[in-house]
Inverse folding.
């Protein structure tokens, strides 16, 4: 299974379980998070880049993956992403480097799965698995 698919499915499953507990404070916190990334004085694209930079400095791999996915959806390109990485590494210091490496790996998987470039052999299997999963999900939604 693709790292992207595995991450997204786990996140969705656990968020559903957490929200099912119906805790008012947790629900409000999740809502605050959702609303913070809506367009306002700053556009969604800028907010996602800020979220990614902060997540890298805080060294939260789950948050990094989430914001990388959102940056990909917002059509952030490699040049913009690497400038963001440079800022995060400058602010966070060398301790950010392992998270930077994993971020680059995940970004490459996102691009390969989206067909942004030909998948390298190491990512081709994950891209094929995601394509099959997405096709099955679309077929299930249409039914």
């Amino acid at each position: 299974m693709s790292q992207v698919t595995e991450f997204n499915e786990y996140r969705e499953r656990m968020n559903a379980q957490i929200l099912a507990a119906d805790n008012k404070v947790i629900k409000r916190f999740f809502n605050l998070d959702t609303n913070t990334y809506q367009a306002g004085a700053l556009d969604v694209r800028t907010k996602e880049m800020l979220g990614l930079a902060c997540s890298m400095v805080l060294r939260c791999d789950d948050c990094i993956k989430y914001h990388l996915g959102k940056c990909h959806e917002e059509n952030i390109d490699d040049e913009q992403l690497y400038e963001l990485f440079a800022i995060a590494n400058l602010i966070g210091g060398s301790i950010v480097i392992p998270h930077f490496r994993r971020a680059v790996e995940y970004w490459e998987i996102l691009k390969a799965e989206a067909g942004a470039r030909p998948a390298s052999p190491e990512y081709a299997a994950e891209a094929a698995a995601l394509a099959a999963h997405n096709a099955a999900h679309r077929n299930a939604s249409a039914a």
In short: Confidence is low (pLDDT under 50) at residues 117-124.
